[in-house]
Design a protein that fits this description.
22% strand; 12 helices; 5-stranded mixed beta sheet; 9-stranded mixed beta sheet; UDP-N-acetylmuramoyl-L-alanine:D-glutamate ligase; 38% helix; alpha/beta
Length: 309
């Protein structure tokens, strides 16, 4: 197997609503809100589900890699419930091997309710469910050892059981990659993330805000110095400034695609990582890998959702 992803198994539940539904439920358009199980049930009780998609940040990347004809797998914690069964089915449909045996849990499968209003804006309500309760027993070590790279997401990292699951997988990995996921995650786990980047990861994906926050840098020059001294590969997306990869003294930049009709930024970072990793595992140059990442993220932001096909 080329790449095994380990991340939050979150099923996207897509529903069309009008603006009055958002008002009635005190939801702010275009934002993401964390909800509990009761709130989630109340929100969905009168909605017609248009579509369900097996999502989560790293899962989106893994599906992108599968669509580029790479042999990939995924580990994510789901419940043996309706959405859990749909999640597993959705990944298998995308030719992703799913290395997790679902059991009857007290908490339901992680779900992201995506409410689409007539103006195409997306308002999200996320119930993490069982996804964030991954533990070391959930890690299929055989799958980890048989994979060239294990790819983690920062969203999943937390003290306690998830941390132990990370450590167990890292110990058995040939190579490791991780996305820092979100500035909120970085700020919350700064010393642990810095330790991972310096000592455990071969490849780190970040956007500019995340990496500046991680190393408490004021300028991007400090980031370049950090990257050069790190001795590992660090890949940074910089919005309209394009992307940059740093390893030792090699600093490679790539620009953005111009004149895009942007409709939805969901999955831009996930598909960038998929494109870059596709290049990396297929022996592309760093520049060509950045180009593939840019191509994938440029395509995804011109359509709704985090699936290219």
């Amino acid at each position: 197997m080329k790449i095994l992803g380990i991340g939050n198994a979150i099923i996207d539940v897509i529903c069309k609503v009008d603006d009055s539904f958002l008002k009635k439920n005190n939801l702010v358009k275009s934002t993401m809100k964390l909800v509990d199980q009761n709130e989630f049930k109340n929100l969905t009780s009168n909605l017609k589900i248009e579509e369900t998609v097996s999502g989560g940040s790293v899962a989106n990347s893994i599906v992108g890699l599968s669509q580029l004809d790479n042999n990939v797998g995924f580990i994510g914690k789901i419940n043996n419930d309706k959405f859990g069964n749909e999640y597993e089915k959705g990944l298998k449909k995308e030719k992703v091997k799913f290395f997790y045996s679902k059991k009857n849990e007290d908490t339901s499968t992680g779900t992201c309710l995506i409410l689409i209003t007539p103006d195409s804006e997306r308002t999200m309500c996320t119930f993490l469910g069982i996804a964030g309760k991954i533990n070391e027993n959930d890690i299929d070590i055989k799958a980890v050892k048989e994979s060239e790279i294990t790819f983690f997401e920062g969203y999943l990292w937390d003290e306690g059981h998830p941390k132990k699951a990370f450590e167990k997988a890292i110990k058995s990995s040939k190579k490791t990659a991780m996305s820092l996921s979100d500035k909120f995650c970085v700020d919350r786990h700064k010393s642990n993330f810095l330790n991972l980047v310096k000592n455990s990861l071969d490849i780190t994906f970040a956007n500019e805000q995340e990496i500046l926050s991680l190393i408490n840098a004021k300028t991007f020059d400090e980031v370049i110095s950090f990257g050069k001294n790190l001795g590992k590969l660090i890949v940074i997306t910089r919005g309209e400034k394009g992307s940059i990869a740093i390893k030792n003294d090699e600093v490679v930049e790539f620009g953005v695609q111009k004149n895009l009709k942007i409709v939805d930024l969901t999955g831009a970072g996930d598909l960038f990582a998929a494109g870059f990793l596709h290049g990396y595992i297929n022996q592309f140059s760093i520049k060509k890998s950045l180009e593939k990442g840019t191509e994938m993220s440029s395509k995804i932001i011109q359509k709704i959702g985090a699936r290219l096909f």
